[in-house]
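Hello,

I think I submitted the NAP job twice by accident. Can you confirm which output corresponds to this input? Input:
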Amino acid sequence: MTAIILDGRALAQELRAAAQSNITALSARIGRAPGLAVVQVLGDAASARYVRSIEKLCAAVGARCRVVALPADAAQVQLEVTIDELNVDPETDGILLQLPLPAHIGTDAAIMRIDHRKDVDGVHPINAGLLAQGRPALVPNTPAGGMELLRRYEIPLRGRRAAVIGRSAIVGRPMAQLLIQADATVTVCHSRTADLGPVLRECEIVCVAAGRPGLVTADMIRPGAVVVDFGTNVAADGSLVGDVDFAAVAEVAGAITPVPGGAGPMTNVMLIRNLIAAAQQ
Ligand code: NAP
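Support: Only one job matched these inputs. Its output is below.
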């Protein structure tokens, strides 16, 4: 293997320690620990696992975490009243609305209800708009974690050609915006992109968030390129795999994130960073 491994697990550990000392200082200043509220409409098993991991992380770094669980058949109005209460609760600095919501709930309307200053997931259109304008915003955690990895490994971005595969509001689009802010020249690819290979081979940076195992193969990668794989897919044998053919691409790329242990572990720690930023406002 020739590529440097961008070790998100190790970096996330380091950032956790930094977050913990920032929270200690912040708590002393504001007279209480920063508070996160996780709003969860019950029924999604993966979501329940994620909520437990957030609770554990908050406890480890000294943040307060309150889970507000609503029944699976909760009405839209019940969810929105819950969000309204948290918006005005002085001890709640950040609100994380667990997605996906059940089909009977309007996700966009629920997200719109969150006070954008408490939107630690960076999903509110005001934060997306601020990010698109290159202004300070609460940025979605997964792309923020990818950028932090690139920054810590001192990967040059200015003037580099970057491709982002995926255009979701939570990963692909904000990643593209962050790369633009870092002065990269960015191409966004999606399921209607005619041929990924010629686009990717032009690029020194390739970020993949499609949820399609094996989508990016070694022949698509320019020798020495940096590859960030956000994909999280469960393979037939139950193992976790990304969107990139890791073994083959690592022979061509200059640096690559593994799955697991790359972009994934960075996400939660970036949530804590957003919580600190929201509490400081
Ligand atoms: P999503 O909302 O399903 O979006 C997937 C994007 O990929 C869409 O824009 C889609 O294009 C594009 N796409 C799908 N098939 C493609 C193909 N064959 N060629 C090119 N583009 C294709 O997913 P998401 O929420 O952004 O998540 C993407 C991946 O990241 C998933 O594996 C997810 O599990 C992972 N993820 C990881 C973390 C983490 O590490 N903590 C967090 C969030 C997500 P269209 O727009 O045309 O449909």
